[in-house]
Automatic annotation (TrEMBL):
GO terms for molecular function: FAD binding; oxidoreductase activity. It comes from Rosellinia necatrix. The keyword Oxidoreductase applies. This is Putative FAD linked N-terminal. Residues 1-29 form the signal peptide.
Length: 583
């Protein structure tokens, strides 16, 4: 369903507007209020201090008619807006990312959707906004962000940032919020010779905040180059993906996405438009490069390194309880397989696989700049170790001319047909544990507990300890990890919500604590994790957290930016009515 604007929504401009607001930057310090240390709870609709309709109309005029009042996609399934045909389309698409990422206030976290308006609840149950933002600004340039920040501060209302809403931790939404929707900042500018402040002078690309992975795939393929991204096509590359670290099939060759960033273009909490590089606004550059999105500044664009494309060798394999001969032999095989992965990733490969109660399915090995003969040699120690315990692996190998050819073969169908609505918990597992077979077996038993409880394991074996130009805030645990595993359960909208909440609580209170106990020295990837993660500061950010919090306090003294589990979020809490208040 088309979002409802206060005035007719302008067509999104497809280039990143770099014109400064009519206000000189020097005047913004006076224009923006600095909230006191004893900031009050954020206002909600119905409060006496909530902005009037005339104030919202003025904001709409300021941002060129691009202020959008939230009308949820599933409102066509509920009284008084029922449209059966439209509702069926929403229902069919609800589990997947595409429709949600293109709507200004929608997001992918079903727990936070809270059944306030979905296509599966009773039709006579009217929609309420609940945790959805009240209004969104369709951001097309700097002045839109500045106007949104100022309005939120002047009226003491919650401010959120949504790119694609590809977030399972509830970061990109909030009750009563004004949302900065950056999805339409989708320009791509190729730089043959980067000449910024970073000590790098090669090829690069400037990506607007709204550019999605699939857009980068296509554009990079046309230029025969590689950009470090993930594999999900609808993720915003310059959004929370890269600012949270960003892993993908090139991690074992080029490091994390954040390791490749040369500069960030942002608007700060004070409304200042600036560029952060390793030598200019260096603390902000450091924090944005791995310290998480939605909390330090509003990203308009980033510049990242580009690499020449080339051949990629790929492989897949699987084994199950039947081929192993017994359940116990299968789990011995899982431990042996996982303990053999360090040598594979140290050769530059990334290994992606899933784990259930009955099978381990390796659905993609990627070895860049190699042929299948080289891949054979890289995989041989693993296959030999498996053969030694009686599990003979049949490795199906393929040769690809470049990244997109490889991606389309191994990932395209899977990632576009897998539901995005899920419960998730994750763990980064140190290689020192997995190289010890006894410890690997202990870890494997906690994985067994997880899958027997109805969760599916999805793992990537990587070596993220690659050389990078500058220090950054990527969780240091990534550098010593060999496995990033998430445990997921697809959200079932046909059963009572209370049942799904019970699964969430099982994950938080039983499954993940057991995995954590078996993996001392590990952590979690802040973008693919449990929003109820205990000790999230140390698990998500590691030893970087102290400095990150110091930078947060410097660049956002009034707590303008808040996102759950983001740096500094411990200073705020949602009360019984989901109102954001000082903790």
């Amino acid at each position: 369903m088309k979002p409802s604007p206060i005035s007719e929504m302008a067509s999104p401009r497809r280039v990143l507007t770099l014109l400064l607001t009519a206000f000189p930057l020097g005047s913004w310090g006076a224009a923006f209020r600095k909230p006191s240390a004893a900031a009050s709870c954020r206002n909600l609709p119905g409060d006496a201090a909530w902005p009037s309709q005339s104030q919202w109309a003025q904001l709409n005029s300021t941002v060129g008619g691009r202020l959008i009042a939230t009308v949820q996609l599933a409102s066509v399934c509920h009284t008084p807006n029922i449209n059966s045909a439209a509702c069926k389309q929403v229902e069919d698409a609800w589990h997947y990312a595409d429709e949600h990422v293109r709507a200004p206030a929608e997001f992918l976290a079903p727990y936070f959707q809270n059944q306030s308006c979905d296509p599966f609840s009773r039709t006579n149950q009217p929609c309420v906004l609940g945790n959805y933002a009240q209004y969104s600004i369709n951001v097309v340039g700097i002045s839109d962000v500045q106007a949104g920040i100022k309005f939120a501060q002047d009226n003491n209302i919650r401010l959120t940032i949504k790119n694609t809403g590809h977030d399972l931790l509830g970061k990109s939404t909030g009750k009563g919020a004004l949302s900065l929707w950056t999805h339409n900042l989708n320009s791509i500018e190729w730089l043959d010779q980067y000449s910024g402040d970073a000590s790098y002078s090669g090829k690069a690309v400037r990506l607007g905040a709204g550019v999605m992975t699939q857009d980068v795939f296509t554009a990079a393929n046309q230029r025969n180059v590689r950009v470090v991204t993930g594999t999900c096509p609808t993720v915003g590359v310059a959004g929370g993906y890269t600012s949270g670290g960003g892993h993908g099939i090139f991690t074992s060759k080029y490091g994390m996405a954040a390791d490749n960033v040369l500069e960030w273009e942002v608007v700060t909490a004070a409304g200042v438009h600036l560029v952060a590089t390793p030598t200019s606004n260096a603390d902000l550059y450091w924090a944005l490069s791995g310290g998480g999105g939605g909390t330090f500044a509003v990203v308009l664009s980033m510049v990242t390194r580009v690499y020449s494309d080339g051949p990629i060798a790929g492989a897949s394999l699987s084994f199950d309880v039947n081929s192993a001969g017994s359940v116990s032999k299968f789990w011995d095989g899982v431990a042996t397989f996982q303990s053999s992965l360090s040598a594979v990733v140290d050769a530059g490969a990334v290994v992606s696989y899933s784990l259930t109660t009955t099978a381990l399915t390796l659905y993609g090995v990627a070895l860049p700049d190699a042929n299948t003969s080289t891949l054979d040699s890289v995989m041989q120690p693993l296959t030999t170790a498996m053969s030694n315990i009686g599990i003979n692996l049949q490795v199906a190998k393929t040769q690809h001319t470049g990244f997109l050819d490889y991606y389309n073969y191994y990932f395209k169908t899977a990632v576009t047909t897998t539901p995005a609505a899920q419960i998730t918990g994750g763990r980064l597992i140190p290689r020192s544990l997995m190289q010890d077979l006894t410890k690997a077996k202990a870890v494997g038993q906690t994985f067994r507990t997880a899958v027997e409880a109805g969760f599916v394991g999805i793992c990537d074996a990587v070596n993220a300890n690659q050389p990078h130009l500058h220090d950054n805030a990527v969780n240091p645990i990534w550098r010593s990890a060999v496995l990033h595993c998430i445990f997921i359960r697809m959200w079932d909208f046909t059963i009572p919500r209370s049942d799904m909440v019970a699964y969430q609580n099982t994950l938080s209170n039983t499954i993940m604590p057991q995995i954590e106990a078996a993996t001392p020295g590990g952590g979690a990837y802040l973008n693919e994790a449990n929003f109820q993660q205990a000790n999230w500061q140390s698990n998500f950010y590691g030893s970087s957290y102290t400095r990150l919090k110091q930078i947060k306090d410097q660049v956002d003294q009034g707590g303008v930016f808040y996102a759950q589990t983001a740096v500094g979020s411990e200073e705020w809490m949602e009360n019984f009515e989901q109102r954001l208040c000082p903790a």
